[in-house]
Amino acid sequence: MKLVDPIIAFQAEIQQIRRDLHAHPELCYEEQRTSDIVAAQLTAWGIPVIRGLGKTGVVGIIKNGSSSRAIGLRADMDALPMQEINTFAHASRHAGKMHACGHDGHTAMLLGAAKYLAEQRNFDGTVYLVFQPAEEGGAGARRMIDDGLFEQCPMDAIYGMHNWPGAAAGTMSVTAGPMMASSNEFYVTVKGKGAHAAQPHKGIDPVMIAVQIAQSWQTIISRQKSPLDTAVLSITQIHAGSATNVIPDEANLVGTVRTFTQPVLDMIEQRMGEVAQHTAAAFGAEVDFKFRRNYPPLVNHAEQTRFAVEVMKEVVGAENVDDQVEPTMGAEDFAFFLQAKPGCYVFIGNGEGEHRDGGHGLGPCVLHNASYDFNDNLLPIGASFWVKLVEKALAPA
Ligand SMILES: [Zn+2]
Ligand SMILES: [Zn+2]
């Protein structure tokens, strides 16, 4: 492990910020206090900031030398609408809100890097420190882009990092190409005709039609998609009816589709709609088919991934780097940045939870769990990765 020495020296300061953010979680687009703290810290270290991109987003800008090269480093800032059950000193003070995805840690790691970069300035070019809101379902990344992030902050490449529970602290991982899935929702209503349950022939039973649609949809995954492509279609809600002896007018199907590529997603969305329409028509019913695309697949660019792997090896050692990590069907809005700019998104091991202070909940230390806590031992590792990435990408000629 080769950490950057000055970063180790101010670890306590960064940990204090991390724990303060953990104690005061804020949800999508409500990160007012968080962004105030980020902006105040950056300003205190002499770093100019742009505020308001993506409502609560903050971008710090560190320019050095004369090169026109520029890279972006991104941290997300938002928390989740869930109740923390940890009782240690820095546990959430806001009922029903919790930093259960470690975005407090991501923000702190990037602040640690910012402090070092502003002090040492061992690079030639521009670093944009992108603190984004609303990763958890609010598409804060897209909103920052829509608000002009890349016009105001032109950059050659952008990098992101997420803590990864279960992988040992001191390890990092990544893979080129698709690493996280697209996430999409569907809402389907089958419109039949209600009747007495003892006289089904006088109505059009939407329940049986919904069940047929549900069954047929799985054959899109198993029979129409190439077996070499990855996708999942999960129906997570079926709602219909209110009595044992009444055939209802309508039945609803709700769920999610995940894919690693846009063409596979296009095919599944189209076929789901056709199967629903034609199945309903076969029985004289109608269907209302709504399909909503949330986050696109997260696809790492090959050149930037190779570069990130080199830097990881320098920081945590080659034996602690997995450069072909198994992709996950989870989704992440950094995908929007990677659609607009070359770049790479990496995982940093968060350990199994043995780092947690006394008073932690009895659940596992995994993302989106009420017993989770970010591992503060990662602060100097993640910040060192950011710093070395900058110093290598923007090395003085
Ligand atoms: Zn999350
Ligand atoms: Zn997250």
UniProtKB/TrEMBL annotation:
Chain ranges of the Peptidase M20 dimerisation domain: 185-278
Organism: Pseudoduganella danionis
Membrane listed as a keyword: no
Keywords: Hydrolase
CDD domains in alphabetical order: M20_Acy1-like
Protein name: Amidohydrolase
Alphabetical list of PANTHER family matching this protein: METALLOPEPTIDASE, PUTATIVE (AFU_ORTHOLOGUE AFUA_6G09600)-RELATED (PTHR11014:SF63), PEPTIDASE M20 FAMILY MEMBER (PTHR11014)
Superkingdom of source: Bacteria
